[in-house]
Design a protein that fits this description.
The complex is a heterotrimer of chains A (about 220), B (about 230) and C (about 60). Chain B has about 230 residues and is mostly helical. Chain B is about 80% helix and about 0% strand. Chain B has one domain: Four Helix Bundle (Hemerythrin (Met), subunit A), CATH 1.20.120. In chain B, helix 2 runs parallel beside helix 6 and helix 4 packs antiparallel against helix 5. Chain C is mainly α and about 60 residues long. Chain C has 1 helix and no strands. Chain C starts with 15 loop residues before the first helix and ends with a helix. Chains in contact: A-B, B-C. At the B-C interface, helix 2, helix 3 and helix 6 of B face helix 1 of C.
Amino acid sequence: MSFVRRVVAIARKDLLAEWRDRESFSAMFFFAFLVLFLFHFALGGDQALIRGASSGLLWLAFTFTSVLGLARSVQGELENDCLDGLLLYPAEREAIYLGKLLGNFLVILVVELVIFPLFAVLYNMDLWSRLPKLLLIAVPGTLGFAAAGTLLSTMTAGLRAREAMLPFLLFPLTIPLILSAVKGTEVVLRGDPFELAMPWLKLMAAFDTVILVASLLTFEYLVEE
Amino acid sequence: MIRRGAERVLGGLAALGLLLGLYTGFCYAPPDAVQGEVQRIMYLHVPLILVSYLAFFVVFVTSILYLARRCERHDAIAHSSAEIGVLFTALAIAAGSIWGRPTWGTWWTWDARLTTTTILLLIFIGYLMLRALVDDPSRGATFSAVLGIIGFLDVPIIHMSVVWWRTLHQPASVLRPGPSTVAPDMQVALYTNLAAFVVLYGYFLVKRVRLEEARWELSRLRMEGAA
Amino acid sequence: MGAEPAEDGGGGVNPWPYILAAYLLAAVGLLCYLLSVSRRTKAMAAQIATLKRFSKDTMR
């Protein structure tokens, strides 16, 4: 089996497991909805304020929901000793990492695709016409977040304070990503020319490259015994 | 590793250096033309920050070495340097904040360097917390090494992003803490203090590594006893 | 450099309490750390000595 096929196989395993009971996905969806709903109260019911802060609020919802999904993804591995089984599988460690990354990335992306229309409805914004450009920002942002998250969740899965540790480690590291995603989304939502979002895209690309390379190089050390 | 005698010499040198630093900072260097006496805090703040960057660089290098060679000493140095780095960074931010109050009228500002430094602090506090939570020492060492490498590599990206965010957001009023002149006697004070804090870092590192190596020995003895 | 003093009565602020606070805070922080490392090292050394003595006794 080629490398790419192994990666896809591992991702498929995760996604199938998720699809079977959809537990993680529903939890993420309802959590995202709750967060979006709470924004209304947190910002004093001021629709204009919310629309003005919409890019930041969207990404707050995305990042918190992602953490939920990342944690649950590795949790499942740990509970059923799947990780040991996975390690017996004749694949390079990098394939395991990329497979899990692909799985996580797709799940988070699907949740984002649901949150966008939800946000548009709750706060009366037109996101539909801007969706392609929004995705142009969201994809690299989500990829970097999933990459860092997959690596870190592998570290925190077995810990006592794991629910707190994953966000505490993940958020400071991914600030450049969150920052760029918010800024890029802001450009799109304000209808400004897309060139203004280019520096932020470049920053996300730089972050994604560094985190992917570093993760690929170090992942094997995390899972070896 | 380093004999006790040499450790004491290092300590003595550090103390001497710090006293010299205090002298140059308060007596030798003149008050700043614009900021007045308050600027003297910079002889504390800047060396603390620069040495903490050094400390985290050491964490980065020893983390890579540990993953490559699995030598306990590298892990001991990484852990120790991270702890000292966190201490120095926290003190630097505090000193900077205290400087900021009479200078800008606020205890805090979201300027690029301060924000980046705080994020750096958060990353390495996370590093120390991870260490504390992982029970198996060699697993903890491995995890921390990976975190140390990624954390350090991230810092330039964080800095770039925060700088862009500030300048594209607030073009005019970016105030930067730091030495405000290049007057030679001020430079003397700055470099003296910098050298003193580097020696202090070295002294702390030696002592802390000794503790860490004792801890490895203790766990080894315990495992032998249990066998 | 453009770092203008704040408008707290422009130059009427006494800088010395701040300077003292900063240096004192740093000194206390550094000293506490030094003491903490020394204390932990002594405790570790005692534990190691006890274990060594214990294993020597049981090996007889």
